[in-house]
Amino acid sequence: METQGLVPTSNLKKNVLNFSGAIDVSPKVTVSMNFNYSTQTLRGEFNDAYSNQTTGSFNQWFHRNLDMKILRELKDLRTPTGIWASWNHANPNSFDPANSRAFYAGNFWYNFYKWFDLVQPVSNTDRYFGDISFAYQPHKNWKFRGTYRKQQNLVWEEEKFYTDLVESGTQTTGNCPECRGFYSTNNANTNRTNLEGQITFNKRYNKFGVNASLGTDIFRQVQKELRANTNNGLSVPNLFSIANSRDQATIVNTRRHLRYSALFFTGSFSYDNFLNLDVTYRQDWMSELPSDNPFITSKSAGLSFIFSQLLKWTPLSFGKLRASIGEIPIGLGFAQFPGFAYAPGQFQWNGNLMMTTPDQLVDPRIRGSVTRQMEVGIDLEFLKRRVGVSFTYWNGDDRDFVTQLTVNGSSGYNSLLTNAGLIKKRGMNFKLMGRPVWNSNVKWEINTNLGLLSSNKVVDLGPDIQKTLGIQGNWGTVGPYMLHEVGKDWGQLFGNGMKRIDGQPVLDAAGLYINDPAVSYGSVLPKYTFGAQTTIEYKRFVLSANADGQVGGKFFSLSNMWGSFSGLTARTATINDKGNPIRDAVADGGGVHVFGVDNTGRPVDYYVEAQNYFHSIYDRRAMDHYVYDLTFVKLREVSLGFSLPVEKWSFTRKWASKAVLSLTARNPILIYAKTEDFDPSEISELSGEAGNLPGTRGFGMNLKLGF
Amino acid sequence: MYRKIIKNGFVILAASVSLSLASCKRYSGDFGDTNQNPAVTSTPIYGALLTFAESALGGYASQVRYGLYAQYFSETQYTDISLYSLPQLAHEGEYLGILNDLQNIINNGPNDNIKAVSRILKTYYYSTITDRWGDVPYSQALSGVSKPAFDKQSEIYTGMLSELTAAVNQFGGTGVIAGDIVYGGNVAKWKKLANSLRMRLAIQISKRFPAAGAYAAVQFNAALNDPAGFISDNADNFILAYPGGNFKSPWFNLYDGRRDIGESEPMVNLLSSLGDGRQSVFGSSAQGVPYGRLRAYVDTWTGANPNWSRVLEPSYRNENGKVVVLSAAETFLHRAEAADRGWTSENMNTVYQQGIQASFSQWGLTAPAPGYFSQSGVVLNQPAGTAANLKNIAIQQYIGAYPDGLRGWNIWRRTGWPLLTPAPDATNTSRQIPRRCTYGQTSYSSNAAAVNAAVASLSGGDTQDAKIWWDQ
C-alpha cells in the first residue's frame, strides 16, 4: 500500500504479511501458530510546533499578499548568486549590490515548497509478532494451553537538512539550528516476549454454566536505542553522516528492561443464558517496583441480567441490566525507582566532566497502584429492534496514584515521585438508535450518543499542594498552560491574563491592559460530547453521514497570539465604531475602541492605535484574548454509494460478486464553533496549539470490489 | 508416528512447566538488576558538579535583557524588552540547577577547599537573583523545605556577606578543588575573588548605609583589610574562558544566526562624549542603534544603516571568547567610591585612575592619554570623603562593567548615573525603566502563600516599577 500525503514530498508505504495455522496432532493436542510481519516507511516533514516553516509562518508571520500558486511555480528559482530564492527579504532599503545575498536570502522563511525538498525525514518500522501455542485437552471439561508470544519492533529513522538552507537564509538558524545542515539517525530495537500457561475448566450443570481458568503470564521487554545527531552544521556540505559533524556529534544510547510475572484467576458463571457473572483476580510482580514490595493486586467483576427473557412482553425485544467494576494495575516505569541518579554529560569542558544533581526526589516507600472504574447501565430495544436506547452511569476514582508531587524549585528540587492524590470522575452516556423506515426498499437507521462528564474533580494532590506545575503549555508559562488544581476539574488552563475588577478589564492611562499573573480559565476538557450517525439505503443507493461535537473546554491559540501581534488575523483589520478602519491613526478617527475600568473601578474607554493595542496584549500578557472555547458541531463525513450491478453484467459476473462506487466528503462543514478564529476540533495539544497544521476538507471517489 | 508426536507434545509440556518453575523466583519479586539504568550512577563526581556550576558563569554575566534596561544595547528588529514589556521571569530554575549543585558540594563535598569555592560561587549566583527580583527564598532554600519562605533582601545581603567571610576562613588543608575551570584550584585567587565580591556587595547597599562606620562601610573595610587581599591585577580576574565547539561564548552565539541586538546609541554617545577609546572594542562600528523605538522605526533605520554597531568588536566575540565576571577595574573603582564616601582613607584619585587603566588593559588597550583623566566628565575634583565625586566614578563603573548588563543596571539603579532617558516608545504603564523583575508563574502555582507574602511588602504590588530594598 502506498499513500501520498497532503504535505509536499510526504508519503507512506506499508506492506503486511500474515500467516496462521493450526494442526491437530491428535484428538487431544492442537499446536497452532500465528505470524505477522509489517513494514512501513514514512517520509515527510510534519512539524507543527512554533516557527515551523509552513503553518508556523502562514498563520503567525506571513504576508497575506503572496500568491501560493506563484510560490509553488517558483520553487526552483535561484537568485543571481545561486541560492534558493525566498519571499521573505530584508527591507529593500538595505539592498547592497556588493552583497546581494543579504537581501535575497530568506530572512526568516524559505519558499515553503523548496523547504520540503531540502528537509527529508524518513522513518522505517519493521514489526514482527506472532505466537506459538500448544493446547492439550485430556478431558472434555479440562484444557491446558501454553503460549509463547513474541513481538519485535525494529525502527530506523533518519533526518537530513541540506546545507543549502544555511546558504539560502540569513537569520533562519536562530530558530532552526538544523538549517546549518544536519543529519540524525536512530536505531531502536524493542523485543517483547510473553510466556503464558492456563488451565481451564468448563462445564454445564443443567442451567448453570461454569468456565474458570487459572493462569500465569511471564513477560519480558528489552528496549535498546542508539541515536546520534550532528551539531553546528556539516563539515562537508550536504554529506550526511555523523562523522561529518562540525562540532562533536551528540550520541545517546538507551537500554530499558521490564519484566513482570502474573498469576490470575478468571471465572465466568451463567444461569439459563440470562444471568452472567464474570470475575477476575490478578497478582502482578513487576521489576519496575521496589523489590521489597513488587506486587500489584487487581480485581474485577461484572454482572449482567437479560430480563427481557423473563418478562416476555412483546414490544420489548431486548432488555439488559449490567453492572461492573474493574481495576487496571499501574507500575512506575523503568528505573524510576530508586531514581536520584547522576548521568555524566557527553561533552567535556576542556577535558572536565560535567554532571548535575537530579531535580526529582523519589519516595523510598513508593508502590504500584490501580485505577478503578465502576459502571451500571441498561440496554433496551423495542418493536423488533426498531428503537434502541442505552444508558450508562460510570464513576472512577484515581486514588494514591503514582505522581510527581510539586515541590517549589527554590528547594533545589521540583518534584517528589510518590503515591498521592484523589481524582473523582463521574459521567453518563446515552445512546439512542432508531430505524424510522425499515423495509425491503428503504432502510434508514440513525444512531446518536451523548456523553456527559458530570464531574472530573481533583480532590487531592497530596499534602499541602494546591496546584501542580505546568503539565503542558504552548508558549512556556508566558501563554496560559495546563495544570491541575485542587477543588477544580482535571486540566485547568491557568496563567497570564488581564487584571479585572468585577469582571471588567482594568485599563491604564494609555488605554492598555494590566497583567494578572494568575488567571484560571477553566478546564481544557469538554463537559459534553455527542455524535450522530445515519444511513439510508434505497435500492442500490446508500447515503450516510456522521456529525459530532462537544460543549465546554478551553484552549490557548499561539497562532492567534502571533497572528494578531503581526497583523495577520482578521481582527486586526476591522472597522471601529466610528466606521473607520482600526488601522487608521486615532487622530484620523481610527484606532481600537477599548472599554474597561480604571484602577478604582470607574468605567473608562479609549481609542488606541491598532498596532500598539495588539502588541500590548502580548507585551502585557493579557492572554484572555487568545483563550477560546472548544465548543463545536461538525459534519465529519457524508458519503453516497451506489452498488454496481456486477452480478448482472456478463463481463464481470464471473469474477466479481460486489462493487460499490462511492463519493465521500470528509470534514465538509464546521456547522458551529464558538470561536470564529480557529477550528477547535483540530487542535493538536491538550491546552491548545502552537502552529497547528490546519484541518483538511477532502472529497473522494472510491470503488470497492468484492470477489 | 502418532506416538512420537504425542511424546514430543509431552516433551514441550514438560519443558513449559519446568520453565514456569524456573521463573518461580520472579513471583518473589527478585528481578535482579532488571530495573537498573546502566547509564547512570548514584554517586556524584563533585568536580563534575563544580565544572557544571562554573560553566554557567558566562551566561550570568552576559544577560542581554538587563543590558537593554541599562541602555548598553538596543533591539534592532523586534523591540519588546527595550519597550519594557512585562519582565515576568521565574527564579526557581536557577535554584534547581546550579545552586543545588553547589549546595550538594557544600553538604557532601570531599574537602573544605571545594566547599569554600562552592560557597563563594553560590553567593555570586544568589546576588544576581536578589538583584533582579528583590525578596527571594534564601534561608529556607536548598534545604528540603518544599515551599521556602521569601527572605527580605536586607537579610539576604547580610547572609551573603557573612557567607563570603566564612568561605574565606574555611579554606585550608590540601584538599584539591577538582573541576575548577576558572582558577584551576588556586586558593589564593579564590580568596581574592571572595574579598572583591564582598566589596561589590557592600557598595551595592550603599544607598541604605551611606555613612562611614555603618554596616556597608564596615563590611567593605573588612574585605579591604583581609590579609588574603583582593583582585588588583587583571591576571586575577574572575573570567570564564569558553573552549568553543560544543561550548561557545554567548557573545558569539548572539550573532550566530540572528542579529537582534546592537550597541545602543546612548552608549556610543556616552563613550564618544568622553573620547573613550574603549568604543573601538565595545562595538563593531561607531554607529549606535536608536534606543527604545517601535519596530517600524528601528527596522527601517537598520535597513538604511547596515553597519550599525554589533555588540563587541568581532575579535572579542570568537566562539572561544572570554566573559569577565568580576575584574580588577571594578574593584579599583569600588575602592575609589568607598574613599569618596569617606568609608576608607585610600587615595581616591590614585585607585580611580588605576581602575580606568585596568579597564583599558583588560580589553588589551593602551592607557588613555592624561587629557582623558582631566576632562570634566572623568576628573574627580571634589575632596575625597564628601561623596561629591559619585557621578564620574559611577559612570566609569558603568563603562567598566560593559557588556555585563546586570552590572550596568545595578549601577544605574543604585547611583542614578549615567542619566538614562526611558525608551521614547515605552509600552508599559509607567513608561519608566524597570526597577525589578516580577515573580514568575512557578512561584504563583507552587509557592503561592510565600510569594503573596513577599508581594504584600512591595510598594504597588508585584510590578516592574516597585523598587527593591537597596534601590529605595
What's the SSE blueprint?
The complex is a heterodimer of chains A (707) and B (472).
Chain A: E1 2-4, E2 11-26, E3 29-43, H1 55-58, H2 68-73, H3 101-104, H4 112-118, E4 119-139, E5 142-161, H5 164-167, E6 182-205, E7 208-234, E8 245-271, E9 275-286, E10 295-305, H6 308-311, E11 316-330, E12 360-362, E13 369-382, E14 387-406, E15 415-438, E16 442-460, E17 472-473, E18 481-483, E19 492-498, E20 500-501, E21 504-505, E22 515-523, E23 528-538, E24 541-551, E25 554-557, H7 558-565, E26 592-597, E27 603-608, H8 610-619, E28 627-629, E29 632-643, H9 650-653, E30 658-673, E31 688-689, E32 698-706
Parallel strand pairs in A: 12-15, 25-31
Antiparallel strand pairs in A: 1-2, 2-3, 3-4, 4-5, 5-6, 6-7, 7-8, 8-9, 9-10, 10-11, 11-13, 13-14, 14-15, 15-16, 16-23, 17-18, 18-19, 19-22, 20-21, 23-24, 24-29, 25-28, 26-27, 29-30, 30-32
Helix pairs in contact in A: 7-8
Chain B: H1 2-22, H2 46-55, H3 57-60, H4 64-69, E1 73-75, E2 88-89, H5 92-108, H6 112-133, E3 136-137, E4 150-151, H7 153-170, H8 187-204, H9 215-224, E5 238-241, H10 250-254, E6 261-263, H11 265-273, H12 279-282, H13 295-304, E7 322-326, H14 328-340, H15 348-362, H16 370-374, H17 390-401, H18 405-415, E8 438-439, H19 441-446, H20 448-456
Parallel strand pairs in B: 2-8
Antiparallel strand pairs in B: 1-6, 3-4, 5-7
Helix pairs in contact in B: 2-5, 5-6, 6-7, 6-8, 7-8, 8-9, 8-14, 14-15, 14-17, 17-18
Describe the structure.
The complex is a heterodimer of chains A (707) and B (472). Chain A has a domain of 178 residues. Chain A is 7% helix and 53% strand. Chain A has 9 helices and 32 strands. In chain A, helix 7 packs antiparallel against helix 8. Chain A is globular and about 95 Å long. The mean pLDDT of chain A is 93. By secondary structure, chain B is mainly alpha-helical. In chain B, helix 8 runs antiparallel to helix 9 and helix 14 runs antiparallel to helix 15. Chains A and B meet through strand 7, strand 8, strand 19, strand 22 and helix 8 of A and helix 1, helix 2, helix 5, strand 3 and helix 13 of B.
